[in-house]
Design a protein that fits this description.
The complex is a heterodimer of chains A (409) and B (452). Helix content of chain A is 40%, strand content 18%. By secondary structure, chain A is of the alpha/beta class. Chain A has 2 domains: 245 residues, Thiamin diphosphate (ThDP)-binding fold, Pyr/PP domains (Rossmann fold, 3-Layer(aba) Sandwich); 133 residues, 3-Layer(aba) Sandwich (Rossmann fold), CATH 3.40.50.920. Chain A has a 7-stranded mixed beta sheet, with helices on both faces. Chain A has a 6-stranded mixed beta sheet with strand order 10-12-11-14-15-16, sandwiched between helices. The radius of gyration of chain B is 24 Å and the shape is globular. Classes of the chains: A alpha/beta (409), B alpha/beta (452).
Amino acid sequence: MVTEQVKHTSNAARGVGKVTVMDGNKAAAYGALLSRVQVLAAYPITPQTPLVEYLSQFVADGALKADFVEVESEHSSLSVLHGASLAGARTFTATSGQGLALMYEPYNRTPTIRLPIVMGIATRDGISPQCVWGGHQDAINVRDAGWIQLFVEDNQEILDTVIMAYKIAEHPDVLLPVNVCYDGFYLSHMADRVEIPPQEIVDEFLPPYRPTHQILDPDNPMSIDPLTPNELFMEYRYKHLQALQRAKQVIADVDQEFASLFGRGYGGLIEKYRMDDAEIAIVGIGSPVGTARVAVDRARDEGKKIGLVKVRALRPFPREELVEALRNVRSVGVMDKNVCFGWGTGVLFMELRSAMLGVPKPPATVGFIDGLGGSDITMEHYARAIAIVDDSANGLAHQEITWLGLEEE
Amino acid sequence: MSVASALEPEVRAQTTRKAQRILGLYDKRCTGCRSCELACAAAKSGTYDLSQSRIRVVSSSVNSFSPVTCLQCARPRCLEVCPTGAIVKNADTGIVSVREEKCVGCAMCALACPYGGMHYSSRDAKVTKCDFCDGDPECVKACATGALEDVNVVPLVDTLYDREDLVSPGLSACLGCNAELLVRFTLKTLGRNVVFASGPSCIAGTGFVGYGPTTGAKVPTYHSLLDNYASMITGTKRYYDQIGKEFHAVCFAGDGGTADVGFQSLSAAAERGENIIYICYDNEGYMNTGIQRSGTTPRGAWTTTTPVGAQRRGKPQHKKDVALIMAMHDIPYVATANAAYLDDYYAKLKRAMEIKDGLSYIHLFSPCPTGWRFPTDKTIEVSRMAVETNFFPLWEADHGKFKINREVPFPKPVEQYLRLVGKYSHLNRAEIDEIQRDLDRRYKRLVALTEM
């Protein structure tokens, strides 16, 4: 889909690759393959399972020269990566839902000891009522653990973002782990056109990982993560937060560099679509953005001055970028595929509202919750949402939060 | 003169490999009869003049005796201080002897010896000492109670004497901590070419991994999570194997991190055949957290979560036999060890370092004075009694071949062990008998495994 800001293909770029069709799990596996990961560890869980199989096959075929550790749990998969990353390896894993929940302990430690690990999350609603289907709740629940979280819209973006994620994670200004969050089933199991970038251009873009901040090495002994008292702990936290803020610039720069080599860019932290003269806007995240593009196009055809803002980075949160992108609109509809327990809203809605605090003449914000537990966010749902945003822009009465799926029944 | 200059380098290297015989001196068996002194005097002077004996029985209080003689030190102080080079250590036998023709009778050696092994005769203005009777000590033959034994020792001191202590001084362990002794000994044996995982447990609590910007270890050490020792170190080992870097990947975990919350990752690493050395120091509970029960707390033991009261009398369940469970994973090497038998532990750790075809598991018995309620100077005594009663047998399984490394021909009743340890002080006759029956049953199972 061609957007105003982003050229999705450009024959001028040197990094034009082979075009094929693959599901999202395979795109993630190709991302890891092209990034030349050295140690992998993963435990199968729906809907991430095919990814584990693809990677195992890559290693079995010799296409990927890496150790694949067939662990007994997600807790161990991330733990194996801790040991490998501390030894200097480039590492990869992926999980979903319950697996991410089981991983919670090493998950929290990964960014706090500054390990540039990349992990896919084939997002899944969790955990009860028992459900294996899509939703963003698993990744959303751990948004404050200190990782960088990038959400993607389609399979091409999965592959490209995995490669970019290493460049971001290993950047000396950052040194933090990155989640590449792609919608379970909607992307993980959906076949789509994907261009596989040439290995030599990926190598040029992504040099080998050489840790300089810490290492577990008999030739250079050091203690890693000893008991850390009060003020020193605060200092570490402060520096971690600073690194997450610095990551904003790095994410944007890496995206531009990627675009120049491969002819595809994603806008960095956010992507704006038909926003130039927009009076109202939809803000979305993940695969539902694909549907939103069509919904916006249709509304434009009907004469509505509407645009779309896609949030790629949930962490670090693109606060200034969103404020800037939405400064001229009268009303914004936020599509959440998750809930914010205790606020009765979605998380993106709540965070966007926070971002708008103190902004002169902020747009009205309207929230939509949809797509939970694998339910569809349909064109009709978007049309209904756009109508409500329109009402709000025109000062008409409307609900603050609308559960689109439920409303019909 | 130092040993280094007294022995040629090749000869020194040889002595470090050989076992050496010394006199084992067992105070508790000594009745003070002085038969050894008579036998020695007769052998060395042809008289019964006890002043000519090179062994002495000393009495520290009523009914408490200690035989005192030369221990044939690996690094003899006497040799080092002798101004004339009259004292030599035989490179083959390890026996330290005085060359009478060179001795000037200055008695520096007698002053230097910390064990009372040198005997100065003012009449002859010479020094004499035990020469091990050409390998057949008369005193041992004369001792009726077994207070003297001719024992073979692996020359541990020779081997480890020059090794750097790879743990910083001043760890904040409790008085009498066995685990601190074990971690220091473990790293001395392993050397510097290791990556060490030490997660939440007493050892990490002592500051071994460090505190703030300081470190407690001189080797690369990672404060793993309580439950991911084995999987974390797997990643390090796999990557270094991939790039051809040789080292030993070692976990040093407590029993909670091993038998309970960390067992899943340990079992999986064993099943996958990861080439790591996993050492569990078992102090039979969550001692660093304040003496709560774990899966390896033995039956009947008091802990703060298995208290003794009107309704409950310590832990009602058995101790989980983690070493045996690990052996059932068909991994290449499993062993149990104990600080009272460091030569045995040394040999086992060296064996584990040789293993390349999978995981080695060593289960260390680690009595805890604080948590087990016994005096801080009894740690080794408790360790030894655990073996002498078969409460904690020393065994190994090398590629499936089980062997008991220290057979106890006449095991003592377990009551003698239980009475040393305060956490069992509430046990009555029937409960002790039940523990004995259970211990006998488990030991029979172990013996059966050695016969397979």
